[in-house]
Amino acid sequence: MQELKKYYEQHPLRSILFAAFLIRLAAVVFSKGFGWIDDQFLIIEIAQSWVKGTDYYGWLPAADGSARPMGFSFFYVGLHYLLFKLLEWLNITDPQSKMYVVRLLHALWSLLTVFFGYKITLQISNRKTASLVGWLLALLWFFPFLSVRTLVEFVSIPLLMWGVYLIVKADENTKYPVWFLAGLLFGLAFNIRIQTLLFSGGVGLVLLIEKKWKETLITALGGSVAIAALQGGIDYAVWSEPFVQLKTYILYNMEHSGDFTVGPWYLYLIFLLGILIPPVSFFLFFGWARNWRKTAILFVPVLIFLLFHSYFPNKQERFVITIIPFLIMAGVIGWQQFVRHRNKPKLDNFNRYSWYFFWTVNLLLLLPVSMIYSKKARVETMVYLSQYPEIEYFIIDDVNKSVLRFPPLFYLGKWVPFDALMANETFRHFSQKKDWKKIENQPAFVLFFQPDRIEERVEKMRTLFPGLVFEKVIEPGEADRILHWLNPINDNQNIYIYRNSAIIANKEDKAIQQK
Predict the structure, then answer these.
(1) For residue 506, how many C-alpha atoms fall within 13 Å in the half-sphere facing its CB?
(2) Does any domain span residue 157?
(3) Stated pTM of the model
(4) Total structural domains within the chain
(5) Does residue 483 carry a pLDDT above 70?
(6) Whether the Cβ atoms of residue 487 and residue 381 lie closer than 8 Å to each other
(7) What does the pLDDT look like over 285-320, one tens digit per residue?
(8) Beta-carbon neighbour count of residue 343 at 10 Å?
């Protein structure tokens, strides 16, 4: 223990990074599946469909001119396309194996947040405060889970951190290329998550207030080059119109701002105060606000980002994940300074025991959350169906819901059409196979979501497909069950797989047919 303590005192950042890597490695191995629609269906599904030579989700121009820009940047998706092409070239074709690689790369990438968080804090404050920030960024209970997800709100953070570090470290002797590099990093973050412009714009505002005119201009130039080359250039190459995806994205969100999750203006405050574990979460907000002059480079961008998202009607918790590391840095710096200058025993005791409570709760949550197999039922259903290479079409029966839970076809390994029977017995058609009287148009499988009225639904479906036989039930993971219990909107249900023996015979029938 003395040797470990001595090593930590000599190498605090190295020790923190090692701990951060270990818990993220656990997430790489065990945290399969996907967290949200966006990290699976706007990244992984798109990239792999391109690798397979299809444009299943219609992101690219069509020969008949029917396709339109979808409003999403090609940059981050394109990186996954190149990665998947490389993996296929290396003969790594299994979807789960590919995702181990994806999660590992993202886990390593997220270590930059820990590294630069420590460095930025050390530059502004002292080593003790920097170490606390480093441990928070390394072991905050939900960070390892997010670190292995392809979630643009989280993936863009290291680029912002890196840019801020270059600016914080800069002095009058800093060369202009450093400022240009900071701008490039902010521009790259923008190409991953457009809303990061609010943060980098806040950084630029601070530089203007400090009357760093040339530095602001050069930083803005760096950002503009990255955005013009990657956002504008790729759009022009694909659609023959620069920034067409950006324009589509902005117009869509303006027109449909109230179509998604809408909440009160204070929703994000409550969310952040909750997940950062009270009373420490209140300490962080107090420190962030109290010390705003000293930490303006952190305070102003976070404030602008938070104000915009609090005002904008569409509110989803993941939208504000981007600012959490910066809130932690500014909050810890301000709160530690406040406690240190007060020098009151009662405050010291309250602070100490509050942190004891924080770390106890945090560590109790850390490992279980880091190892969540999210959306397990949907993923494992596709994995199960992938053992039937002859599958060409299936149907989802989810009559208890009006919102379709899309199947992650990435894990099926092929891009086949499907249809879905939703609430009020309304079919959502994604295929042309409507004449089911013809055997060749029938589904190979019918997937029944949720157990409600399952016998009745199966018998009704058998009137269309008499050959339906029960195959398997896929249950959600324990974590998915808990999330559903906490909030029913996290709808992770049992999936009952029925095979259509008219399309895919069982093994015994196959053997007879072959003989």
Answers:
(1) 8
(2) no
(3) 0.93
(4) 1
(5) no
(6) no
(7) 999 999 899 999 999 999 999 999 999 888 888 999
(8) 8
